[in-house]
Amino acid sequence: MTRWQISHRTTYAYDDEVTDSYGVVYVTPRTLPWQQVHETGLVVDPTPADLAEDLDYYGNTCGFFQVTRPHRELGVHATAVVDVVAPVYDQDALAAPWEQGRPDAAAWRSVDFTMASSMVALTPDATAYAARSLLPGRPIGEAVTDLVHRVHGDFEYRQGATTVTSTVEDVLAERAGVCQDFAHLLIAGLRGHGLAVRYVSGYLATTPAPGQDRVVGADASHAWAAVRLPGAADQWLAVDPTNDQWVADRHVTVAWGRDYADVPPVKGVIFTEAKKSTMTVAVDVVPA
Amino acid sequence: MTVLREYAARVGQPELGAISRFDEMVGPDGALRPAWKGLAEVAIGLTPDDLRRVESEIVRSLADDGVTYNRDGRRAQPWRLDPLPLVIEAAEWERLEVGLAQRAELLNAILVDLYGEQRLLSSGVLPPAAVFGHPGFVRLVARRSAGGTQPLTVAAHDLGRTADGRWTVLGDRAQAPSGIGYAMENRRVISRVLPELYREASLHRMGPFYAALRSALIQAAPVDESQARVVVLSPGSHSETAFDQAFVAAHLGFSLVEGSDLVVRDGCVWLRGVDRPERVHVILRRVDAAFSDPLELRGDSQLGVAGLAEACRRGTVRVVNGLGAGVLENPALLPYQGAMCRLLLDEEPILPTVLTWWGGEAAGLDVLLSHAERLVVRRIDGGRPLNGPVDQVRAQVLAAPHRYVGQERLLLSQAPVAGRAGIRPSPVSVRTFTLHTGGAYRPLLGGLGSVVGEDGLSRSSKDVWVLKRGSADPDQGLREPMPISTLRAVEASVPRVLDDMFWLGRTAERVEAMLRLVIVVHALSENTASDADRFCAQVMHQVVNRLAGTASEELDSDLRSVLLDVRRDGGVAQAVATMRDTAQSVRDQLSPDVWRTFGVHDRAVGLLVESPHPHQVAESAGRMLTAVLALDGVVANMMRDPGWHLIALGRSLERALQLCFLLQGTTIERRGLDVDRRVLDAALAVAESAVTHRRRYRGHVRPRTVLDLLLLDDLNPRSLRFTLRSAADHLAALPRSTGTSRPERRLAGLLEQVEEVDSASLVAIGGASRPNLRRFLEATVVSLQQLADSVVELHATSGPAPRPFTGLLVEP
């Protein structure tokens, strides 16, 4: 078990006053069989006139806030202390042919994660890309791991290669992207074959290079995918294509949905005459 | 031979091989159906001439009421209404009514289930992909915290009648059903143009249903009825059914608002009143759910209210229908009607639904692909049926099968429809409405009939008459009149409405000024006796061109285009189109008589389009002037609220501006005594001060007398000074005016300039012009424009539009 202390600070700066700011945030880690959440905090600056917390359709904690004080800078600071162990999966489920992963009648809720969603179009290209890993009858654990490995090898991690609105097609064409893009690509490929796949938003603790100090704020919010395994147990194999690995005890799960649009860490609406803004994100995941 | 006899004869002897539809008026034996028997005496008397008269009266009535429909985002088209109603007998309606009530109850049960327990999904009655893959399923509403689904309040059901005379449900509308306003308007018009028939038929009047709707909306409020404020949320005057929205708002006595008029604070929805915000408790939503909240739904929407979903969750506001209701419009649900009805209501469905196959299921897809050419194939999220070649349709379906359904092509019943060639049978469908009131669903006894074209689209509408069993039956079967709740009467003025009012005033004044110019120029052009006359006509024509550009060197066609071409900036046609849009978006604030004035204008346009004669330019311009002057009369009878003051202020400021433009084009430059005198006369005529000038100065037109009368006179309502003074009165009456506000300071400064100026110095000559006058007019125009800007800024600005956090992002 590893205990992590998380600090996630998002700051927007505007070139003119913002009179009203409404926000929705997904920054509070989920409580899961392999993840205990001990303390969470959310501070919005300036102090919001309204702040509320709720559980969304998928059981994620989301925050709502409204700042009514005119401001040129908005800060959203989320903190949490969590204990994580690496998830363990039923070996039989991992060894079952991937075709059995398609949700049956009992798994009707998972059908939601088999369909195209606003940022994951099920394009023939993505389906074909995944097909080379999904050989008939191949154990699902192996097939998914192979696909994760290929995405990691075929696509370059490059910040700026894509934007928050990039599509799976863009990523396929660019052969590059960031964690969110690789997650979307993996999701599109597997859903194209009828599997149920979630987009997972969270954090990854990074290890400083040997001999170097931890750089504060060097971490970032992270994203990966989770594939429903065959069987009645409702197990989802969580895999991280950006790092070519299964999700383990360095991954902190915050929220899941059909794609990024369901669970963006921070989204909102502002009323302003400002023309420009900048956003900075500082994430720290340190052992506690 | 009368039209109905001819129709009956035609229908009684169908052409060989013609498809045989159920006829709404004539039975298989060639006799009138029972519903028409009672009306026979009056109806049979209708001659072709009567019918033509009735038809033209309908067109005129609809124009006078400003009834429009904007198809595909094009400019508003006139609403079309066929003179002959669809008449449904009491006994027959009663059977239908039971089916409709059950249908609404079923839809409500589906809604509650899908956003709650989801038994339909867990039991396997409904394939989950049919629901999860439809954009109408709003996951926000399916949260536990959504606090249970509110019942479906209003629903619409499209019905068609098949060859065996059975009514079949073609589809349902629950997202934001439209048509109740059109149905009511149709009834108003038909009762006016066919009074004998209307009196003869003992039919259910629609009034009580409206009262019930009003009452249901007020009761939906999470607060005491006497405190409840209800608004109608419209996407704006360009929306397809803008008329319907405005009509319903005006008729129910609720404010017609747009998203920018509302704001969420402290988890409640408020109307952004200029003097104070007002709580809103119920929103009759005519904006699709996806566009209703840019925070939690589509972030690019400018039509919604940021935070609305949160306010709904907190129960401080009730949105009707709820944000999740669009899920019911999904045609992929239709194949499962029977099973859903049995599971949720433990009943068999009474009304059949049109046979539908969903591509998301293997068997359905099979039928869809193998019978694509015989089916109507459409996307489940709306839009027109696919109409490409069959192979293309199949390919589209195969790419995403769960997004498509195929539906049988129904042989809809036919009814007599008036057209160029007289009365002919044409397929019809009927939109019916159900309302949740008093714990049950009650159908409107009536509806909105549609004349369906070859392409399946509606070509025209029909009134729908449901007859009473006995003449003593209460209208709508509502024996108890609905209690009329008195709502707080004072409506806050919202900045958007005030902005519209201000522009309405300004545009009306522009139209008036341009029309007067056109009339004078046209008259001058007919008098070409001397060089001076011709020169003068040219000078005045140039004034037109300065304001509205030049479309043609040839005077007659140039003036025509000023009157007719909507694309011509500064022209009358464009300004009137703008006025119409503006009036549409504040329809609930205006007297219906406003639309009459547009009707007068439209007829003048029609006459001009038809007649190539130059004389018609003056004739039509004259009628258009009558229309815009009549608008003044309508406005004069409005409540003296801030909206009225802004119309008046807009008119005053624009009048002052137009006067300056006129004087700039006529009085600065010197063109020789002969020409100048004529030009001054013309300018006086345009400024509608010729008669006054003649009386006061005994016919001696000199620059100084003209400027005295038009700039400085105390009593001439057309003078700059007078106009500015009345502007000051209106400005002072606005809620945000303090006596020292910016617009007030600007106006005071401007008035001071005018008071100080002396006409002797203005007319001073420098070379070929009058430099002092030029400077004065230029400065005045600039001041007036700044003043108008500051009025909008202080009194009529809604503030910036919502933008997503990411909307302004640049790389750090």
Report on this model:
- The complex is a heterodimer of chains A (288) and B (812).
- Chain A is an alpha+beta fold and 288 residues long.
- Chain A has helices at residues 91-95, 124-131, 140-154, 168-174, 179-191, and strands spanning 2-28, 35-45, 50-55, 61-67, 71-84, 156-157, 176-177, 197-204, 221-228, 236-240, 245-246, 251-257, 266-272, 277-287.
- Chain B has 4 domains: 3-64, no CATH class; 68-354 and 424-477, no CATH class; 356-409, 2-Layer Sandwich (Dna Ligase, domain 1), CATH 3.30.1490.270; 495-795.
- In chain B, strands 3, 4, 5, 16, 17, 18, 19 and 20 form an 8-stranded mixed β-sheet that branches. A 4-stranded parallel β-sheet of chain B has the order 7-6-11-12, covered by helices on one side. A 3-stranded antiparallel β-sheet of chain B has the order 8-9-10.
- In chain B, a hairpin with a 5-residue loop joins strand 4 and strand 5 (167-173).
- The mean pLDDT of chain B is 92.
- Chain A binds chain B through residues 12, 14, 19-20, 22-24, 49-50, 52, 54-58, 64, 66, 68, 105, 108-109, 111-112, 114-116, 122, 164, 262, 266-280, and chain B through 121-122, 124, 127-129, 132-133, 139-140, 142-145, 263-267, 294-296, 299, 306-307, 310, 313-314, 400, 402, 799-812.
List keywords for this structure.
heterodimer; A: 288 residues; alpha+beta; Immunoglobulin-like; C8orf32 fold; seven-stranded antiparallel β-sheet; five-stranded antiparallel β-sheet; 5 helices; 17% helix; B: 812 residues; Dna Ligase, domain 1; 4 domains; eight-stranded mixed β-sheet; four-stranded parallel β-sheet; 29 helices; globular; ATP-dep_Glu-Cys_Ligase-2 (chain B); CP_ATPgrasp_2 (chain B); DUF403 (chain B); Transglutaminase family protein (chain A)
